[in-house]
Amino acid sequence: SPTTTLSIKGTASNGINIIGVATTATRAFMGLNASNHGYLFVTGSSGQNPSLINSAGGNSYISGGNFGIGITAPGAKLNVVHTASASVPALQIASSASLASNDIVRFQINGLTNGFRMFQNASSVLNYTFQDGNVGIGTTDPSNKLHVNSGTTNEVAKFESTDGTAYLSIMDSNTTNSLQGIGSAGDELTFYSNNAERMRIDSSGNVGIGTSNINFSNGGGLVIGSGGATRLKIANATTGYGATDGLELVQSGVDSYIYNYEAGPMYFGTNNSTKLTLESGGNFGIGTTNPGAK
Description:
mainly beta
């Protein structure tokens, strides 16, 4: 009582056999195997024997050889060739068949449309994106968007460019310029904000703030520079941090100033003791901390 146009019924190992040209060897067979499971057997002219077998549990697998999609000579167990002009991705594992035409690979995980995505942008640049979750390198339990654990290797990561400068940008929703972060220029460490370099530590450990010209007549240390008057402010919670609070060292043109904006004395000492005292009222003492006259 056949239910289709052609029905073949037989015992195990029965089916349709296709014999090759000028040979008695089977080149294709579709039917039942010894376990009474349906399968498709295909062999090449040189005797390669890949076969597709459907098991009783509903599982399907390919045994023997490589499997190719978009390629006639696959070089791996699964070899997928995808052209840039194709309107479908090379690989899709998703709950929806709807994908952008520039997708190459996309995984949908737990309902996330772009759980993992590899695609070409409008400039044909290859991009890799994760929609959610954390990425771990060297760890199976990442606690941040990127968590790298190098074990006992102290150099955890390396970021490198092919020219004389490299930097990492650190931005939030209010940052307007991408040049905002930390970088490297040769053997010198650089710091950037608002699209400009603001500080540099040279290869000898000297520091420049507002200038990359870090020079000393002898030794090394800290250089502070700016286009106008350069100021170093020293303040605390008691003085406050306003424009006219604390102590300032100022270099304006060729003129140098020391300002104490507070109503307190200034002390100058050496050998662990005070030698000069300048009170807020203008009295000046040498060898005393309580001068009674100017």
